[in-house]
């Protein structure tokens, strides 16, 4: 059988390898000049630093299968994401932990005292938070919310936190110890040779043809089945409207030596136009001292236009309605499956993306073994 995988990111690469190893021909198309999607990494020609071209990616997971899978295709060096934040003219530690609380309030509290102190600051009148703001006020109170969450969130999402769902903040940790590891997964790391090398290795198997600088819409060939990892609304030619995304603009900074002394510095104050500065040699601490120069990027978030790279699905009420309509249209399609971040219009970490692609691979392998080959339009519920 002959298959097409639209998109050479993590989802597409895992699916393509599965199809090829089952003995089938696979065409992987991507309109960019490289594989890897937004995980793409490359050596900066001026500084030599390994740059995360579309923003930094730290791999973290609690899924043993996913961790074992990625290690087959690259050497993952240990990496702990330790984020700093500028708020009110002072540098603090994120996520909010015991050090943040003590520094911010000028205290020397122990864990129990800090827990009681923050609980007293929290808005107890909010029983069921309906928005990001209500969730924050219920969780940490007004002062910490105003300092670390309100301004940053308004810049990141372009709307007031009262309009965002509470679920966004529920993902962020609040700690009453000095643990400044941003993630709490047991497996964390960054590939020694970058993410693009990992994805190239996943795709490096007989039966796969990769076509870069090639858009799916311009293919004239026919396939037994298409695995589409691009934006679901684009597949239908934006027939009933465009789903909303946030995109990022990057302002490049090159300096001698160090610039900020850490990988990620968030800027929480709303009057600072960018959300953060990332210094990329710090994402590879095993080699950072090899470089005399450093390269950083200021990140600016805004609404994605027609020609912008989609980063974060907005998923507010109107988008959910539009998505439901596209899902209904998709379920009527023949011989196509939608998957991945863009294909299901969901925010997915890398490990979840791979986990879902491995689940889809299991379904595909079972379908090959059945008397009648049939695959679902969605391998997971996109809602």
UniProtKB/TrEMBL annotation:
<dbReference type="InterPro" id="IPR015899">
    <property type="entry name" value="UDP-GalPyranose_mutase_C"/>
</dbReference>
<dbReference type="Pfam" id="PF03275">
    <property type="entry name" value="GLF"/>
</dbReference>
<feature type="domain" description="UDP-galactopyranose mutase C-terminal">
    <location>
        <begin position="147"/>
        <end position="347"/>
    </location>
</feature>
<dbReference type="GO" id="GO:0005829">
    <property type="term" value="C:cytosol"/>
</dbReference>
<dbReference type="GO" id="GO:0008767">
    <property type="term" value="F:UDP-galactopyranose mutase activity"/>
</dbReference>
<keyword id="KW-0413">Isomerase</keyword>
<dbReference type="GO" id="GO:0050660">
    <property type="term" value="F:flavin adenine dinucleotide binding"/>
</dbReference>
<keyword id="KW-0285">Flavoprotein</keyword>
<keyword id="KW-0274">FAD</keyword>
<protein>
    <submittedName>
        <fullName>UDP-galactopyranose mutase</fullName>
        <ecNumber>5.4.99.9</ecNumber>
    </submittedName>
</protein>
<comment type="similarity">
    <text>Belongs to the UDP-galactopyranose/dTDP-fucopyranose mutase family.</text>
</comment>
<dbReference type="InterPro" id="IPR004379">
    <property type="entry name" value="UDP-GALP_mutase"/>
</dbReference>
<dbReference type="Pfam" id="PF13450">
    <property type="entry name" value="NAD_binding_8"/>
</dbReference>
């Amino acid at each position: 059988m002959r298959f097409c995988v639209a998109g050479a990111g993590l989802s597409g690469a895992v699916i393509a390898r599965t199809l090829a190893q089952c003995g089938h021909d696979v065409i992987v198309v991507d309109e960019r000049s490289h594989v890897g999607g937004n995980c793409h990494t490359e050596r900066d020609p001026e500084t030599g630093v390994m740059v995360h071209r579309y923003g930094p990616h730290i791999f973290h997971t609690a899924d043993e299968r996913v961790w074992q899978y990625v290690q087959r295709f690259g050497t993952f060096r240990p990496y702990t994401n330790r984020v700093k934040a500028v708020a009110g003219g002072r540098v603090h530690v994120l996520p909010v932990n015991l050090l943040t609380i003590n520094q911010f309030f000028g205290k020397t509290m122990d864990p129990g005292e800090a827990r009681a102190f923050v609980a007293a600051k929290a808005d107890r009148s909010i029983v069921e938070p309906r928005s990001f703001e209500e969730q924050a006020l219920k969780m940490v109170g007004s002062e910490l919310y105003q300092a670390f969450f309100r301004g940053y969130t308004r810049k990141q999402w372009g709307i007031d936190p009262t309009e965002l769902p509470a679920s966004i903040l529920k993902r962020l940790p609040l700690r009453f110890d000095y643990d400044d590891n941003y993630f709490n997964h047991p497996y964390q790391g960054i590939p020694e040779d970058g993410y693009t090398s990992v994805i190239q290795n996943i795709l490096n198997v007989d039966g796969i043809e990769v076509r870069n600088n090639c858009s799916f819409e311009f293919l004239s060939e026919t396939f037994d089945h298409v695995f589409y990892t691009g934006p679901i609304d684009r597949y239908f030619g934006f027939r009933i409207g465009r789903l909303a995304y946030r995109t990022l603009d990057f302002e490049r900074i090159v300096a001698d030596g160090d610039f900020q002394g850490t990988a990620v510095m968030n800027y929480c104050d709303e009057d600072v136009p960018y959300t953060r500065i990332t210094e990329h040699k710090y994402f590879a601490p095993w080699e950072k001292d090899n470089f005399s120069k450093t390269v950083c990027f200021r990140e600016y978030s805004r609404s994605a236009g027609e020609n912008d790279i989609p980063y974060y699905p907005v998923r507010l009420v109107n988008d959910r309605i539009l998505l439901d309509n596209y899902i209904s249209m998709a379920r009527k399609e023949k011989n196509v499956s939608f998957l991945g971040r863009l294909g299901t219009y969901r925010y997915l970490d890398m490990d979840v993306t791979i986990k879902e692609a491995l689940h889809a691979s299991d379904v595909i392998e079972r379908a090959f073994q059945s008397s009648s080959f049939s695959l679902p339009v969605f391998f997971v519920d996109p809602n």
